[in-house]
Write a structure and sequence with these properties.
elongated, about 100 residues
């Protein structure tokens, strides 16, 4: 099975409205290879290591976990989760726990 990284990376970059080159440079990739490296990641020719994926995620303003989930709904949840403050994250976790217990 293929990794979800290429699809997620391209979706996030396009939603942010930045070029492959800009993303690569802002993520710390050498400016002369930035565009090609991001292009290879988006096409699935290469997969960024975790540190590179984390830097790319930071530039895009999303949690790194977004790149690795195969589930489209979970990817949306991860992005929304990334926008919350710590206290709201704790509240959300508590509410999800209550919801899950009701479903058992």
């Amino acid at each position: 099975k293929t990794t979800p990284v290429p699809k997620r990376l391209k979706e996030a970059r396009l939603s942010k409205g930045i070029s492959q080159k800009t993303l690569g440079i802002q993520a710390g990739i050498d400016e002369f290879s930035a565009s090609a490296r991001i292009n290879h990641y988006e096409r699935g020719r290469h997969t960024p290591d975790y540190q590179t994926a984390s830097r790319i995620a930071r530039v895009l303003g999303i949690p790194t976990a977004y790149f690795y989930t195969e589930d489209d709904i979970l990817s949306d949840i991860i992005c929304l989760y990334g926008t919350l403050r710590k206290t709201d994250k704790k509240l959300l976790l508590k509410e999800l726990g209550h919801f899950a217990q009701k479903r058992r």
